[in-house]
# Entry
Amino acid sequence: MRRYHRRDLGLLLLRLGTGGVLAAHGTQKLFGWFGGHGIEGTGQFMESVGYAPGKASATAAGLAETGGGALLALGLATPAAGAAAAGAMAGAAAVHAPNGFFNQSGGYEYAATLGLTAAGLAVTGPGRLSLDHALGHAVNRSWMIPVAFAATAAGTALVVGARARRLRQAKEGEQDPLFEEEYLE
# Structure
């Protein structure tokens, strides 16, 4: 197998794996599939972690994950698909960041891995085994990469920033204990 064939096969595998996981994760939010909680349950969770309104946040995250994942798997509109999925994962990483990096502690490792892989695919392109290639790259032009990432970065910064403000405001007025409990005994 020549080098470009191996690269195309490798990109196909990355797209199918990453896109499939993202799409499945998104359908948990949108439809309650695969043990998910659907829009209602996910919306309540989103509210509880500072994304408001919860239902709209659940819908946006579910669409970015499901749509971005499905498009990545197909290799269609790859810059927009990868950027949308990366943005959704940045929002998820923000929720998990206080728990550290590793997933076993509830950290952002999983979200970061999916987001970085989606971003990498958006930049690299889908390869020749894709709908983008079959359609002559009509929705996969070089100029679309920075545009997709700029739009996603702006939207993600607004949403994650608003969440951070809400969490700060909710904490205002709370006072940390002056002494740790172990010292009081």
Summary: The chain has a mean pLDDT of 93. The two ends are 70 Å apart (CA to CA).
